[in-house]
């Protein structure tokens, strides 16, 4: 069970690994935009809700946010004894047959429901939704809370998400880190170059503005890879030592990861794949000490955590970083615990123990 298939991101990477564990299982989702999906996913048995028949649901899925709980509840799941939801939004609202178990791999409790103010800032939600939704948030929260009580067991992708599951759902969960393709990175023997690196969507909640401001003060070279609606504003703020390269291929991004002095991760994320990929390439990470970075970055070993989301705190962290020595092999070994193989092993153990009732 997956929220929607109209774009490819971290949630879809997790779904890919879940499908590899259960290749004969159909994938249920609210709607499916085939043209936007990679070739391997198009070969799956994908089944959709009635939302899929509404054309605009694919290109403007946020317009239909209030309908998703009802769409998922309409699915007929008779005949199944185990359903696994890969949830960041509304697919938790399914109803499974009597005697069946629903296991939820929780990427996060729905931001739209539990943290609406931050959601609309990060996702550029329109003015109508900003006015209409807040009065009905208590109802949406009750609906999602009740759906969470029907889940047999939860897995959380980080301790931050585990905390949210306890806070919003009053449920216990097991932390299973999401899969990262660490295997594609080879042992890094390259000496680092002088530049620091950001790879990110350029949208407000990623806090790339903090990095630009910090490196304006530091005068050190910074490379920013990625696109987003913040790009023009960030470029206008940046001094000559900050270069914006736009969107690059995975191979081009990896070339920069291998060569950078350190990877900068200034935002608060549910987990954060990008810093783990940098560590898998043998490069240390300088990250804001919140969210998933607290799980993935070992302070003083694989990188540095800074405590406040401010340019000053980042400047201080970079200056501290410059006084330290880093071992690329130690950093790569640290990253291996987030590999796809580790995820598959841990998730299958979670499934077996949940089904067996242990």
Q: Describe it for me?
A:
This protein has 358 residues and is α/β, with parallel strands linked by helices. The chain folds into two domains: 10-179 and 340-356, 3-Layer(aba) Sandwich (Rossmann fold), CATH 3.40.50; 182-337, Glycogen Phosphorylase B (Rossmann fold). Helices cover 39% and strands 13% of the residues. It has 16 helices and twelve strands. The strands form four sheets. The protein has a four-stranded parallel β-sheet with strand order 3-4-5-6. Strands 7-8-9 form a three-stranded parallel β-sheet, sandwiched between helices. A three-stranded parallel β-sheet has the order 10-11-12. Helix 9 crosses helix 14 (311-322) and helix 12 crosses helix 15. The longest helix is centred in the C-terminal third of the chain and has 17 residues, at 340-356. The chain is globular, with a radius of gyration of 21 Å. The mean pLDDT is 91.
Tally of extended strands?
12
Percent range for β-strand residues: 5-15%
CATH architecture of the largest domain: 3-Layer(aba) Sandwich
Number of helices: 16
What structural class results from the helix and strand content? alpha/beta
Order of helices and strands: HEEHHEEHHHHEHEEHEHEHEHEHEHHH
Overall structural domain count: 2
Shape: globular
The CATH topology name of the largest domain reads Rossmann fold
Task: Give the low-pLDDT segments.
Answer: none
End-to-end separation: 24 Å
């Amino acid at each position: 069970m997956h929220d929607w298939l109209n774009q490819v991101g971290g949630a879809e990477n997790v779904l890919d690994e879940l499908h590899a564990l259960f290749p004969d299982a159909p994938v249920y989702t609210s709607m499916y935009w085939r043209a936007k999906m990679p070739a391997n996913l198009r070969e799956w048995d994908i089944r959709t809700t009635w939302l899929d028949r509404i054309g605009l649901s694919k290109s403007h899925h946020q317009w239909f946010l209030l309908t998703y709980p009802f769409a998922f509840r309409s699915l007929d799941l008779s005949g199944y004894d185990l359903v696994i939801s890969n949830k960041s939004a509304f697919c938790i609202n399914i109803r499974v047959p009597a005697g069946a178990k629903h296991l939820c791999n929780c990427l996060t409790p729905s931001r739209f429901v539990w943290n609406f103010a931050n959601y609309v800032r990060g996702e550029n939600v329109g003015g109508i939704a900003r006015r209409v939704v807040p009065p009905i948030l208590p109802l949406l929260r009750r609906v999602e809370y009740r759906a969470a009580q029907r889940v047999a067991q939860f897995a959380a992708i980080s301790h931050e998400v585990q905390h949210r599951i306890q806070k919003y759902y009053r449920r216990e969960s097991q932390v299973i880190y999401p899969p990262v393709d660490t295997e594609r990175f080879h042992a890094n023997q390259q000496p680092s170059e002088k530049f620091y690196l950001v790879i990110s969507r350029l949208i407000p909640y990623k806090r790339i503005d903090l990095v630009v401001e910090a490196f304006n003060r530091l005068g050190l070279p910074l490379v920013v890879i990625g696109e987003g609606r913040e790009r023009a504003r960030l470029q206008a703020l940046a001094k000559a030592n900050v270069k914006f390269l736009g969107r690059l291929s995975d191979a081009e991004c990896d070339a920069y990861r291998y060569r950078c002095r350190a990877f900068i991760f200034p935002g608060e994320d549910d987990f954060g794949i990008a810093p783990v990929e940098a560590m898998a390439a043998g490069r240390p990470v300088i990250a804001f000490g919140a969210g998933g970075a607290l799980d993935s970055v070992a302070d003083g070993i694989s990188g540095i955590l800074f405590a406040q989301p401010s340019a000053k705190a980042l400047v201080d962290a970079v200056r501290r970083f410059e006084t330290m020595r880093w071992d690329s092999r130690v950093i790569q070994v640290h990253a291996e615990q987030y590999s796809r193989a580790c995820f598959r092993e841990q998730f299958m153990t979670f499934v077996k123990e949940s089904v067996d009732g242990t």
